[in-house]
Hints:
- The protein is of the alpha+beta class and 403 residues long.
- It contains 8 helices and 14 strands.
- It has helices at residues 46-55, 85-91, 94-122, 144-155, 170-198, 202-205, 303-306, 377-393, and strands spanning 208-210, 214-219, 222-231, 238-251, 257-265, 277-278, 284-289, 310-318, 325-332, 337-339, 341-343, 348-351, 356-359, 367-369.
- The strands form 4 sheets. Strands 1, 2, 3, 7 and 10 form a 5-stranded mixed beta sheet that branches.
- α2 (85-91) packs across α5 (170-198) and α3 runs antiparallel to α5.
- The chain is elongated, with a radius of gyration of 33 Å.
- The two termini are 65 Å apart.
Amino acid sequence: MDSDGNIKQVVDTENDDQFPSFFGKPFQQMGGSQNKWNPFRKKSGLMAVMHAQTKKNRVVSKHGRINTFSRSEEAHESHRLLKDFFTTLIDLSWSWTLLSFAASFYISWLLFAVVWYLVVYTNGDLDVDKPENHTVCVDNIVDFTSCFLYSLETQHTIGYGGRAVTEQCPVAIIVMSFQSIVGVVIQACMAGIVFAKFTKPTGRAETLMFSKNALITLRNGAFYLVVRLADLRPTHLIECHVSGHFMAEEATDEGETNPYHLASMSFGSELDGTVDYIQPFWPLVVSHKIDDSSPLYQMSPRDFQSKQFEIIVTLEGVTPETGCSVQVRTSYLPSEILWGQRFEHTTVAYDKDMAKYAVSYRTLNNFVQDRTPRCSAKDFEERSGRKSTNISKSPSSNSLLTP
């Protein structure tokens, strides 16, 4: 942020030429031109431009993604991710997951192929001139290729019948038992990782919608910031709660400046902005009351054109299908907050023929202009207070009492 409290845009020049590593950190380009072909880079075009605009100058994109990255000098901390190895594998992209899935099997096959080769080599099974009474450890092993094939067959219990361990070689029996255990462990781990990735509620969050704009309107004599949200699935989330945060630069009386301070904002489904628990049967309007505890209390429409801040709205719930928690968020910049508007309540209507409520998501972003005063909530309360005070002090015109 600059001295006026405006959030400056940080141009990420190095993140565009990097692709995620095994631990989710970017690999550095190894010299040469920065225009090297990268299969992991997002494609350019109109959609890429629109995607970049949704992240421009904001912490949370309109689609809920956190617009942060780690610089290259922080790469030395990547070893900490090994302490949470299972979660690290779950967070990998599907391309890296499938690659690690295949690599774990190929590496195990290759390592045990080397072990089997050493076993048969030390036992003399590969010698050209073997004694007549010589007993091999594994039948039909003639070279390293056959050792690799036997390693694969043993680990996955394929059993073609061409190669088998003999009972005269205890070392081979021990190696076969150990490889069978290792194979089961690898399959169990990789199956658990793939299942966990399938059950991640990332895709479920795509069916939760927020209105493109937040509105400021007057309700029952108080200012409110309102947002509309909806759940597209007929099996709605359970235990839904909504919350908000206000990000802006804050300074203390002692001179401490926090350029990216996150202050909590309460949102609720009631008209007065209370009760953060919601039931998303149809598109709902959640509101934040702009009172003396709100960061928007002293802001007028003109301040929305000069100041820089970001309002982050978060919806949390549980999917009834899997019981997994879902968290989806969006954000609103000052240019996306409209003053003196309210949402049209046309998203739900009762259909007499079907005897059901018809829900429409096409009108999720529809709003109309109202007569909200173009002043801050603080000024409005002061004017309303002075007006009520003057009325209470004025003599009654129809009083029949005389001094």
